[in-house]
Each structure stands twice: as C-alpha cells, then as structure tokens.
Amino acid sequence: MKIGVIGGGQLGRMLALAGTPLGMNFAFLDPAPDACAAALGEHLRADYGDQDHLRQLADEVDLVTFEFESVPAETVAFLSQFVPVYPSAEALRIARDRWFEKRMFKDLGIPTPAFADIQSQADLDDAVSSIGLPAVLKTRTLGYDGKGQKVLRTPTDVVDTFAELGSVPCLLEGFVSFTGEVSLIAVRARDGETRFYPLVHNTHDSGILRLSIASTDHPLQGLAEDYAGRVLKHLDYVGVLAFEFFEVEGGLKANEIAPRVHNSGHWTTEGAECSQFENHLRAVAGLPLGSTAKVGESAMLNFIGEVPAVEQVIAIDDCHLHHYGKAFKLGRKVGHATVRSKDRVTLDRQVKRVEALIKR
Question: Residue 184's domain spans which residues?
C-alpha cells in the first residue's frame, strides 16, 4: 500500500517510520526543498494548492492523509474526488479554524473559555468589554507553537492589537486559571471503533511544548474520553486526533483539537503497545487498531533549536533519541527524546538528566 501525505515535516517522517514495517510506501507533497520526510519516500515538491501535482499524487497512491492542519481544506476536498482522504475535508475545515472549533465544542456541550469572533479592532474592543482581561487574542487559522497570538493583560495591550496580528480574522478567549494542561490522543477507525491513550500532562514555554508525561489512572481520563468521543462521532472522524484541555476545578475546559498525530503523543513510540503513528496508519488504511496501553512510565522532551550531542542523549538509560534531520534554527523543533522507566521516581530522575543537556 502506498500512502500519500500532505506535508513533509517530522510528523510525516515519523508516520513513514511507523508504516514501513507494515509494508507501506510513502509519497510526500511539500513545497520545501529540504522537507525532512523526503528521506523516507517520494517527494513531490509543490504548493498545497497545485492541482496538477495533487492529481499526480492521487494517481500514485492508495489513500491520502495529512501531517498538519495548515493544509487548506480545499486541498483535501479536491483530492477526495480522486482518492480516499482521511481525516475528511470537513474535519480539517473545522479543526484548523478556532472559531469553527469553539462553536463545535459549544454545540456539543463541551466547556470552553469565553470566546468571541474578532473581525476588526472595534470587535476586539467590544469583546474585551464583555469578556474582560486578561484574555488571549489568537488568529483563527495558522497559529501554532505560540505564533499568531498575544496575551492581553491591560487596556494598553488592546490598543492596535488587531493590526499587530495582521488584521486577519481572530478569536478572543477569556484567560483560564488552570491547574494543569493535559492532552488526550484518540484514534478512530473507519468502522467507528475508538481507542484512547492515557492523558498526558504538558509543560509549555513561550507557547512551545517542552515536556509531556503520560499519566497513570488520571481521575479525568473518563471525562476527557467522553468529550473527545463526542467530537470524533460528530465529525465521523478517521485517524488520530489530539484534544488539548485545561484542568480547572476538578474538571476540563477545551483548548483546541489537532486533526493529526501530535507532539504530545510522541512518547507512544517507545511508551505504548502501538504508537500514535502506527495507529493513525492502521485507522486510515482500514486495518485493525492496535493497543493504546502504556508500557511502563513514559515522558517526551522536545529539542528546540538544536539537538544535544547524540552520545550524551543515548548514554542516559532508557532514553531514545529522535533526530528529525532538520537544520538547526532558533525556535524550531528539531528533535525529541522519549524516556521510559518502570516507576515514576526513576522516570523523573531520567527526565532531569535529559533536561540538563538542553541549552536555555
């Protein structure tokens, strides 16, 4: 089976690494000349709206998926005329736009922060008067890893902020006082079978995920699965979906979803019976889903800007290095390490050893 992937970054690369042992081959459509997934398959260098190359991709593969939500929904809709594409264009259309996403949560009875659609500075001024400060202004699309957003703490922060974010459609969200940030990685097959990985505790710095630790018997696991299950069913979703939540007063408030394999699920490669990457491929290919059970205690640490010396990382017991083969650049995710242990005390010790290698 040959899988087409829209996007050729590290997520596409890791999908191919998971699918190769299953006898799958890959083709990536990505405009970047140095797309890091290209080493794992055919690279069609073209813009995401290039219909000639999209048709070429459709003619060469058995099905198509995508590795990130910046892909236009129109691209997926176009491809769907010629080849199966999972997740669907409709799922992507909603998940890539924060306004559509939040409205869906509200319609499904999933708690969210207060929010408002912002189309102008006047809209922002009115929304701030209603929602209050502090609040966060985010572009409706294309923002990730802390990009395309600004925290508003004082009235001065509000002045001219719509123009500062590019005068594009935005979403204002009320600030949430949370006790923790968690994410749930879910996978749904073509026949509707759904499985969930354990909730993951996440730590961010400047909007970028730094550390994820898989939980054991989290008291909010069932609630998170309920909320994610509503979304999966509503979208008739196929593949892996990540759902990020704020922990608040013994409950959860929805932050956002990602219609793809996700950074906070990287621990599953060594830390689960079947990784998120393999399970995504199983789901979109119509194969039986794999077990999402943990194998010991696991954590993932991102390497931002540069990867520490290989020999130093792999010298740490039960530490697994994933180098993306990307040029080092300030603020760029260029690799990660997963750490696995039999108990949490040892895991925490190993995490600290990896953190000591990361330059701040």
Answer: 180-355
